[in-house]
Amino acid sequence: MIRIKYLSKINITAIFRHYKQLILASLTYILAHVFDYILTLHGLTKTNGEEANPFAQRYIDSFGLHLGLLIFKLQMIFIVIIAAIGIEYVYRNRQSKIRSDYILTVGAILTFIGGSLWLLLLLKLY
């Protein structure tokens, strides 16, 4: 009975305050992948090119362009964010000096750069 009482008193703002950087980095990472998904989808439909990532291309070949790319992106987002939560847990227990929000931020920046290169290529073509 005590546990139920404790669980009902979980404060959402306290969770957000404690994990604010991880939540914001995760949202930035997701936004970067949405941006990359849209530009990749647009680029692959406007050009006759193939996806450069062989793993993503395997999903596209199996499920079609729209669904295959969506499944691949969602799977990558899920894997990276679950790994970031694990790294954050290890960091909070002082067993690591690596912060997961830094990893997610670097991943988001690299994804934005990749998407921007797609955009530059598309602008050059049209």
Would you mind describing this structure in some detail?
The chain contains six helices and no strands. With 126 residues, the protein is mostly helical.
Distance between the termini: 66 Å
Number of helices: 6
Percent range for helical residues?
over 70%
- Give the domain tally: 1
Instruction: Give the DSSP E fraction (strand runs of 2 or more residues).
Output: under 5%
Let me know the number of strands.
0
Shape: elongated
Run of helices and strands:
HHHHHH
Which features would summarize this protein structure in a list?
mainly alpha, about 130 residues
In short:
The protein is an all-alpha fold and 126 residues long. It is 83% helix and 0% strand.
What is the topological layout?
Blueprint: H1 2-7, H2 12-18, H3 20-46, H4 54-63, H5 65-92, H6 100-125
Helix pairs in contact: 3-5, 3-6, 4-5, 5-6
